[in-house]
Amino acid sequence: MNPPAVGRGAAGGVSPAANSSAASGHRIAMSLARTPLFDWHSSHGGRLVDFAGWEMPVQYTSIVPEHRAVRTAAGLFDIAHMGRLFFRGPQAAEALEALLSNEVLSLQPGQVRYSLLTNDTGGILDDVLVYRLAHEYLLVVNASNRLKVVGWLQRHLGRFDVTLHDETTTRFMLALQGPRALELLQPLVPQPLSPLKYYFAIETTIGTAPAIISRTGYTGEDGFEVIVPNSAAVELWERLIAAGAPAGLLPCGLGCRDTLRLEAAMPLYGHELNEQIDPLSAGLKFAVKLEGRTFPGHPALLARQRDTALPRRVGLRLAGRRIAREGSVVHFGGSAVGTVTSGTFSPTLEQSLAMAYVTPAAATVGTQLTVDIRGQHEPAEVVKLPFYKRVASAILLSPPLIAFAWNALFPQ
Q1: Residue 187 vs residues 181, 191, 235, 236: alpha-carbon distances, Å
Q2: CATH no. for residue 190?
Q3: How many domains are contained in the chain?
Q4: Is residue 69 in a domain?
Q5: CA–CA separation, 175 vs 226, rounded Å?
Q6: Are residues 256 and 321 in the same domain?
Q7: CATH at residue 376
């Protein structure tokens, strides 16, 4: 999931080498789910892989040009594999308030908020985005966790007057990301989009199709995520491709989605987040409101916030160009102090970067560490997150609010 400058969409990235049963580029099992754009991806060079049970494009040409298109112009992503769960009924807000780590009752109309679902021990079941719409609430969840989350929610919703509708397979979702996203999407939408604030959404139309448009994303750039009925998916995609090509827009796969989110220090479920990792260790305290409310895992997190020995998620900049892959052991002063969760060579910064969990003594910015990469200890320095930060003026926030948001999201 993509928090503001952190999951996900709601999140949904993928390591290019992970979850792939199609390294040769051949078709994969027909039992996998497909988005409405499957045929388009197949006919336009998309290399399809198995991601969380969906047949998704990992890239079209190669990761680096797609990555750079998002940073310099725009990239278009099929993210219809992400779960879209709608909550309807008089107690929808109360139900979500009781189940999510972040506040729901305080959401303004149209507001989107990053939150977490936690188990009884405080571990992260999923990181999600919750939308307050005009007559319902929407939860966008990670593709790999959708069925688990639906089952968990159904077990907890019985005491509320609310119904849950999983519309993942009947609605399409795309992400248009990059500095030219606004100018490319605006001609298709009757309402002005420039006043739409970061992490807010509008209900509108695109052509004759109803649409939900949010100013959210999982790349570290300005951009939008758009939900429309499946029947409108191909036409919307092709209109954006045609309009954006002269501006440098490229269709993008999950491969560059992963390198983009890592540069922006956005945690990925299954890497930085899982059921054994708590939000406080993950640096997501901003998404956990403990005072005056309760939710599953609340007692455990209330006790854990006083634990000064918790591991901490940090950013690492390696001295060389070798990549610290997930699972690489981090050393400090001759002792193992942590483990890498994600690593890449940054196309934007042209440096080898990684995120890791380390002990508090090794977590201070500027600390010199080493990472064991296939038996060789590579020098690395703890650096402030995020690694990459876009020019904030692209988003309609005041400078003090921007500073507040970044400091809250990436405390050091």
Answers
A1: 11, 9, 14, 12
A2: 3.30.1360.120
A3: 2
A4: yes
A5: 6
A6: no
A7: 2.40.30.110
Do 71 and 178 belong to one domain?
yes
In order along its 412 residues, the chain shows pLDDT tens digits of 655 544 444 444 444 334 433 333 444 445 899 999 999 999 999 999 999 999 999 999 999 999 999 999 999 999 999 999 999 999 999 999 999 999 999 999 999 999 999 999 999 999 999 999 999 999 999 999 999 999 999 999 999 999 999 999 999 999 999 999 999 999 999 999 999 999 999 999 999 999 999 999 999 999 999 999 999 999 999 999 999 999 999 999 999 999 999 999 999 999 999 999 999 999 999 999 999 999 999 999 999 998 999 999 999 999 999 999 999 999 999 999 999 999 999 999 999 999 999 999 999 999 999 999 999 999 999 999 999 999 754 443 333 333 334 344 444 4
Pairing of the two strands 75-78 and 250-252:
parallel
- What is the C-alpha to C-alpha distance for residues 104 and 99, in angstroms, rounded to an integer? 10
Same domain, 48 and 148: yes
Residues 7/267, Cβ–Cβ less than 8 Å: yes
Residue range of the domain that includes 350? 311-412
Length, in residues, of the chain: 412
Query: Among 207, 242, 266, which residue terminates a domain?
Result: 266
Say if residue 349 is in the same domain as residue 210: no
Pairing of strands 163-166, 83-88: antiparallel
Instruction: Round the CA-based radius of gyration of the chain to a whole number and report it.
Output: 20
Domain assignment of residue 287, yes or no: no
Nearest to 207 by CA among 239, 165, 163: 239
Residue 104 falls inside a structural domain: no
393 and 247 together in one domain:
no
Placement of tokens 């003026």 in the chain: 393
331 and 244 belong to one structural domain? no
Instruction: Tell which residue, 7, 28, 215, has the closest CA to residue 128.
Output: 7
CA distance 148 to 143: 10
Edge-first strand order for the sheet with 223-229 is 201-206, 209-214, 223-229, 171-177, 75-78, 250-252
